[in-house]
Specification:
CATH superfamily of the largest domain: Trypsin-like serine proteases
CATH topology of the largest domain: Thrombin, subunit H
Number of strands: 17
CATH architecture of the largest domain: Beta Barrel
Order of helices and strands: EEEEEEEEEEEEEEEEEH
Strand content: 25-35%
CATH class of the largest domain: Mainly Beta
Oligomer: single chain
Number of helices: 1
Largest sheet: 6 strands, antiparallel, barrel
Structural class: mainly beta
């Protein structure tokens, strides 16, 4: 199994408390504002370099100390020629509103931010601008356990029910209107939407179709798509499954539905890479 690894030093240099406005990439089209309690395993991946903080991508908690995101969200700092600044850090947060924050939230005992301890990226990843397959997957190993219930991965067996027309739920922070990248300025707040699976390949699926359907946009990458199937037990709630990781779109203004990497297609890689994280000492919880 091929992976690329990155280890991140966790300790921060001291800095005084202050409030800062966060910069944003983009997110859900035709969605609506939602809370931390809605799709609680959906997280925002942010990058901090010194006092500069940027909202990068989505991520999804799949174990108390592991989140899954798109490889292209972290690939810039995984390349052999790249060097990480001494004050460079990744964090994940469940906060629904990332317009402002205080520096104290980045402390090691913070309840709102968790530092990323290490990253394992799929070894076959190729840039999303190149012909596929892209293998656009990366695992984020967190510096401590989260108290949030992890999302349940869709299994290869359950994927038999993943068909065009199936209702899907998407989550993201940022741009909520059609427009060229960088031309629409919206605050980085959590948005959700109900949409549908439009098309499927062996490794990917398209969510939504036209500008009138709910779908994802640029920096919404790495975020989750959830689906629900009929319950197997009479009277039980339909199980919610984490089915896709936002990867790319085929237009430059978010008028059409974007493409996710299918979780079921990488189910074995995810399980094996989580175990690899245990063996390499990247994980803080291997129960």
């Amino acid at each position: 199994m091929k992976t690329q690894a990155l280890f991140l030093v966790l300790l921060l240099s001291g800095c005084g408390p202050h409030e800062t406005v966060i910069s944003s990439h983009e997110a859900i089209i035709n969605g609506e504002s939602c809370t931390e309690q809605q799709f609680p395993a959906s997280l925002e991946l942010i990058r901090r370099v010194g006092e500069s903080v940027a909202s990068l991508c989505g991520a999804t908690l799949i174990a108390p100390d592991v989140a899954l995101t798109a490889a292209h969200c972290v690939a810039e700092f995984m390349m052999p020629t790249s060097t990480l600044p001494d004050d460079f850090r990744y964090y994940v947060t469940p906060r629904a509103d990332m317009q402002t924050y205080s520096s104290e939230e980045f402390d090691s005992d913070s309840t709102t931010m968790i530092a990323v301890h290490a990253i394992l990226m799929h070894g076959g990843y190729s840039q999303i601008r190149s012909p596929g397959p892209h293998h656009d997957m990366a695992l984020l190993f967190l510096s401590r356990r989260s108290s949030i219930p992890p999302a349940q991965l869709i299994t290869p067996q359950e994927a038999n029910h993943l068909i065009p027309g199936l209702t899907a739920y998407i989550v993201g922070w940022g741009q909520q209107a059609i427009g060229l990248k960088g031309t629409v300025n919206t605050p980085p707040t959590k948005h959700c939407a109900s949409t549908f699976v439009n098309a499927l390949t062996q490794l990917e699926m398209q969510l939504g179709s036209s500008e009138y359907s709910a779908h994802k946009c640029f920096g919404d990458s790495g975020g989750a798509t959830y689906v629900q199937f009929e319950p197997t037990v009479l009277g039980a709630a339909p199980p919610l499954r984490f089915a896709g990781v936002t990867s790319y779109g085929k237009d430059n203004d978010c008028r059409k539905g974007g493409f996710d990497t299918r979780v079921d297609a990488y189910y074995d890689w995810i399980q094996q890479t989580m175990q690899e994280g245990c063996e390499k000492g990247y994980r803080v919880s291997c129960d």
